[in-house]
Amino acid sequence: MAELTIEQKKLAVEKGLAQFMPDTVLQRVLQYWESEYGNQPSFVLNRFLSEICTNDEMRLQRKDMLRQVLHEISVVEKQQRLKVKNDKSVAVPKQGEEVVDSFLAFYDFVMAILKSVARNDYLEFVEEIQLKMKKHRSLAEYWYVVGSERESLQQFSPQNYAPMITVLYAIYCDFYGPIKADQLYALIKNDIKQRYPEVDVKQFL
Question: 3-state secondary structure string, 32-79?
Answer without folding.
Answer: HHHHHHCCCCHHHHHHHHHHHCCCHHHHHCHHHHHHHHHHHHHHHHHH
